[in-house]
Amino acid sequence: xxxxxxxxxxxxxxxxxxxxxxxxxxxxxxxxxxxxxxxxxxxxxxxxxxxxxxxxxxxxxxxxxxxxxxxxxxxxxxxxxxxxxxxxxxxxxxxxxxxxxxxxxxxxxxxxxxxxxxxxxxxxxxxxxxxxxxxxxxxxxxxxxxxxxxxxxxxxxxxxxxxxxxxxxxxxxxxxxxxxxxxxxxxxxxxxxxxxxxxxxxxxxxxxxxxxxxxxxxxxxxxxxxxxxxxxxxxxxxxxxxxxxxxxxxxxxxxxxxxxxxxxxxxxxxxxxxxxxxxxxxxxxxxxxxxxxxxxxxxxxxxxxxxxxxxxxxxxxxxxx
Length: 321
Ligand code: ATP
Hints:
Blueprint: E1 5-10, H1 18-31, E2 35-39, H2 42-48, E3 51-54, H3 81-93, E4 98-103, H4 105-118, E5 122-126, H5 142-162, E6 165-171, H6 178-186, E7 191-193, H7 201-214, E8 218-224, H8 230-241, E9 245-249, H9 261-279, E10 285-290, E11 293-298, H10 299-302, H11 311-320
Parallel strand pairs: 1-2, 1-4, 4-5, 5-10, 6-8, 6-9, 7-8
Antiparallel strand pairs: 2-3, 10-11
The chain binds adenosine-5'-triphosphate.
Residues 11-13, 43, 74-75, 78-79, 103-107, 109-110, 113, 128, 130 line the site of adenosine-5'-triphosphate.
């Protein structure tokens, strides 16, 4: 059966580059002779038929914009059969034959269940700042988030080296240490605390004291938000070393901003690849990038397990400190 009309939605946490993906999905579908419905507010909009017909022009001038013009949501109702059944009715009513779901792990899980339950072809496009989806080297938004956090850390380094100070910088990552690890390496941080690894505060404080005796005057320690309570870490370090410890929580600035060239290009390639799969009659798949080639896997593979933190990179960070 030829795909006549597809829907596109963004779901879960927003990430920079989602707009570039929406643009690519829409325009590639138009090129393939497929109509597009934009679905607002993720799965919630799917349940409520919060749809708008998208044309080539609907996505003009969004490639450089952060956030998502379709908005995003976390939707409890979609985790129930009743909720998903309403979503199916919405799609039927609007003649939508397939879906492109742009989001993270949770969104993939939802799309996988929904697609199999009602035989609706769904294709996932990975977009999350945490880069924690399997079988893709990168997810849309993670490069931008890392660069935004890195920029902030460079600024902190300037002030840290002017006065003898220890900075604890909390970055995003509830279950993933990806941002912390990348900015730790890229920003030359002294240490990182990430959910995938245990940390030893005693040893950290010993290092600080030893460094101080050698004449070292500044430290930056990156903490992923899900790894530890950064305020408590700051207090403990002050207690154990007697140094002035400042805490900086970068928070939501990491989610915003114009996507980097890398994220825009990734989103553009993956959006088109997702439409291509739907047009070829494929379903229940996730697109990704591996060694700069488009990689297609079953949803269940993409969601099966969390990416491991790269311990070798952590060792390198510590050697270079
Ligand atoms: P991020 O990684 O950026 O947080 P995400 O896609 O993982 O993005 P979630 O909040 O985990 O974000 O999931 C988004 C939505 O997907 C949920 O609000 C819910 O509607 C749907 N979803 C998640 N898990 C399931 C599930 N097991 N069954 C059905 N729907 C689900």
